[in-house]
Specification:
The chain has 260 residues and is α/β, with parallel strands linked by helices. The chain has a domain at 30-158 and 200-249: Decaprenyl diphosphate synthase-like (Undecaprenyl pyrophosphate synthetase), CATH 3.40.1180. It has eight helices and six strands. Helix 3 packs parallel to helix 4. It is globular. It starts with a helix and ends in an 11-residue tail after the last helix. The relative contact order is 0.18. The structure holds farnesyl diphosphate. Residues 37-42, 55, 58-59, 62, 81-82, 86, 97, 100-101, 104-105, 153, 233 line the site of farnesyl diphosphate.
Length: 260
């Protein structure tokens, strides 16, 4: 993806001691970076605040991550915002999150346009409260023509539900005679997922130190490099992103093969 070198250098000025833009190879960036934004609740609790304050603070981290990825020229940024299991949270927290998704998205639409970002959703957004769903659909329609970075927000997303849905889609296509059983190969499965049009993530970043996938992109993360940081999501910033990219660039990726 094209990037504005001047804007990039400005955005990554004032570097901390341990990391700077020159520590990463700009010609070898992950094309798709995915983030599991974890630790909002703990961040708030540690400060004697309500958990919701952590989610509100987390919005700034997401905004900064979006801008940083645009500046770097990353093709796709995806973020796990709400899982199919998150409905188990107290109703007031679920309500707040749904409200934050809607209001934040509306507010950020001009930024998405300015940065040429195209929004897509991973997950069953039909099942969301009406107001949130309406804003999401507006966001999809309004940014559909943007040609820059794709921002994929996983909302009401669960990888097992996604795979079961793909199985139903493929079974229906066989039943209708559209395809044969033999046509169901890895490509056909991949094409039946929410991520059909996206490359697999090359780098997965998880904040707050948790070493698990939490039902996120189980198929798509098969060969992704993981970067887990103890930083809680509301403290995540452009520098922590660079640390993740630097770690990614230090990995020896063999995809199950051997080095030539
Ligand atoms: C995980 O932290 C975070 C979430 C479930 C919500 C993430 C949402 C945001 C960052 C707001 C983003 C806004 C938009 C518009 C997508 P947690 O609550 O699980 O934290 P804990 O593990 O410390 O309890």
């Amino acid at each position: 993806m094209l990037r504005d070198e001047q804007k990039l250098i400005e955005y990554f000025a004032d570097a901390p001691d341990d990391i700077s833009l020159s520590d990463v190879n700009l010609d070898h960036l992950p094309s798709h970076i995915s983030v599991i934004m974890d630790g909002n609740g703990r961040w708030a609790t540690r400060q004697g605040k309500e958990r919701g304050e952590g989610h509100i603070a987390g919005i700034s981290s997401l905004r900064e991550t979006i801008t940083a990825c645009v500046r770097l020229g990353v093709d796709v940024l995806s973020a796990y915002a709400f899982s199919t299991e998150n409905w188990k949270r107290p109703q007031h927290e679920v309500d707040l999150l749904m409200h934050l998704f809607a209001t934040t998205l509306l507010k950020e639409l001009p930024l998405f346009h300015q940065e040429n970002v195209r929004l897509v959703f991973l997950g069953d957004i039909e099942a969301l409260p009406e107001k949130t769903r309406d804003v999401f659909e507006e966001g999809l329609a309004e940014t559909a023509g943007n040609t820059g970075m794709v921002l994929a927000l996983a909302v009401n997303y669960g990888a097992r539900a996604e795979l079961a849905r793909a199985a139903r889609t493929l079974a229906a296509r066989v039943a209708s005679g559209d395809i044969n059983i033999e046509d169901i190969d890895e490509g056909a499965v991949a094409a039946s997922l929410y991520t059909a049009d996206l490359p697999d993530p090359e780098l997965l970043i998880r904040t707050s130190g948790e070493l698990r996938l939490s039902n996120y992109l189980l198929w798509q993360l098969a060969y992704s490099e993981f970067y887990v940081t103890d930083t809680l999501w509301p403290d995540f910033d452009r520098w922590e992103l660079l640390r993740g990219i630097k770690a990614f660039q230090g990995r020896d990726r063999r995809f199950g093969g051997v080095k030539a």
